[in-house]
Amino acid sequence: MTKKISALELTLNEPAPEQTLSAWLYRELSRAILDGRLPPATRLPATRDFARQYGISRGVVVNVFERLQTDGYISSEVGAGTWVNNRLPEAAPSRTKRLAAPSKVRPAPMIGLPYSGPARPFRMNEPALSHFPADAWARVAARRFRQHSTWLQMNDNGRGFQPLCVAIANYLASSRGVNCSPDQIAIVSGVQQALDLLARCFLKPGDPVWIEDPGYFGATIAFRNAGAKLVPVPVDGEGIRVSEGRRIEPRARCVYVTPNHQFPMGATMSLERRLALLHWAGETGALVIEDDYDSEFRFEGRPMLSLQGLHNGRNVVFAGTFNKILSPALRLGYVVLPPELVDPFLSLRYGTDLCSTSLDQVILCDFIEDGHFGRHLRRMRDLYAGRLAALMDATQSYLSGLLEIPNVRAGLYTAGFLQNRMSSEQAETVLAARGIETMGLHRFVLRRPDPRGLLLGFAAFDERSIRRGVAQMASALGD
Ligand SMILES: Cc1ncc(COP(=O)(O)O)c(C=O)c1O
């Protein structure tokens, strides 16, 4: 090979903090070779000269040259020196065509959460993480780590860990009147994954879907991503207005509802509406998706029988989650499918992520079977009931004439309705400026006018912080 003799006049960037000298030098030299600043056949100085020129120890230079040689960037011969190779291992293409346009269905934009960092009153999507049953979880997990043969093998057919499905089927039968066999259950990462898969497996682009207005943005995103036509159907104190849905789009293929605790307004769907919805679905063959995201947290009375239970499982998919009960970071939920949807759902799921992680599933299964889950739930129910009562009480004391909270004793968050003629957006902005985290209800409407209210999370905050937060709200909204 002809070797150009060239004095090395290469400018090197500063090392990043915490980057070792050899990692830095390797990256700088390989980059310089790939982008042509050190062209093929350039001769490199002897390691001693190189080290002196750049003020680095010779040992580092020798190591890096050896690695560059092993990786095919440079060659050296005793007595002849070191030079850049003509054929490079991974030369970057000199021209890059722009990416082809994405498919016709454009991903729906994420809802911009108005806050980040550690939660402050009244962030809405956080349970009381400081009460996470860490000791019990750690004990169960340690036992399962040792018995690794059950979860290290990949024997999940996409439905999930069979004993967990059995435990969920029993739990749902007794707590929600859900009528299913464990084979109808698939473990997913949460309601969100269930909605995404259901929308893609059941709907064609353009299919009309009734969606509660105001409603859950995660459902809107899933249906939009599948290319469905969203049909906003207003909700009132009894849930979705079925007669309105029938009037606007009688032939919708699917309806998404949160009957036990309507998101975000808080209503429980009345029995009359439940039956009307199921009648319509029965007549038209539409699929009802029942999002049962937080019915564990009902502080007065019992949750109503699920739509799934009322209809004997036909036409209804029931989706639930452990992410609100334990932690949003857990990412485990479940879906109860009508028998004819099981195979299509599982095939689609197989093509996305095969199955949920088995270790988390076996730990959760033991956690339920050993009674920790039931205990944690009871403890959290009492804690949240106290926190909601503190919020309602403080609201009555400080926010009279400014904000009213309806008497819904459920959930991890509640809607509060403005009494001072402010819009939801104005109130959210004014409060955010004082460091109070709320979400204006305008964020959840599709077609309806602004309901003039705020979503207030109470689960993650102790009663003192709640009272303090309400007092701050009063001064911000009063001003
Ligand atoms: C109404 C509703 N459904 C579903 C979810 C998401 O559940 P998961 O975390 O299980 O995906 C949420 C989360 O806040 C929710 O509010």
Short account of what is shown:
By secondary structure, this protein is of the alpha/beta class. It has helices at 21-34, 47-54, 58-70, 134-146, 149-152, 162-176, 191-202, 217-225, 242-248, 271-284, 307-310, 339-353, 358-369, 372-398, 424-433, 463-478; strands at 43-44, 74-77, 81-84, 185-188, 208-213, 229-236, 239-240, 254-257, 287-291, 316-321, 333-336, 403-404, 413-418, 439-440, 453-457. The chain contains 16 helices and 15 strands.
Describe the fold and architecture:
- The protein is α/β, with parallel strands linked by helices and 479 residues long.
- Helices cover 40% and strands 13% of the residues.
- The strands form three sheets. It has an eight-stranded mixed β-sheet, sandwiched between helices. It has a four-stranded antiparallel β-sheet with strand order 12-13-15-14.
- Helix 1 crosses helix 3.
- Bound molecules: pyridoxal-5'-phosphate (PLP).
- Residues 125, 190-192, 216, 218, 258, 263, 291, 293, 321, 323, 328, 333 line the site of pyridoxal-5'-phosphate.
Topology of this structure?
Layout: H1 21-34, E1 43-44, H2 47-54, H3 58-70, E2 74-77, E3 81-84, H4 134-146, H5 149-152, H6 162-176, E4 185-188, H7 191-202, E5 208-213, H8 217-225, E6 229-236, E7 239-240, H9 242-248, E8 254-257, H10 271-284, E9 287-291, H11 307-310, E10 316-321, E11 333-336, H12 339-353, H13 358-369, H14 372-398, E12 403-404, E13 413-418, H15 424-433, E14 439-440, E15 453-457, H16 463-478
Parallel strand pairs: 5-6, 5-8, 8-9, 9-10
Antiparallel strand pairs: 1-3, 2-3, 4-11, 6-7, 10-11, 12-13, 13-15, 14-15
Helix pairs in contact: 1-3, 2-3, 4-13, 7-8, 7-12, 14-16
The structure holds pyridoxal-5'-phosphate.
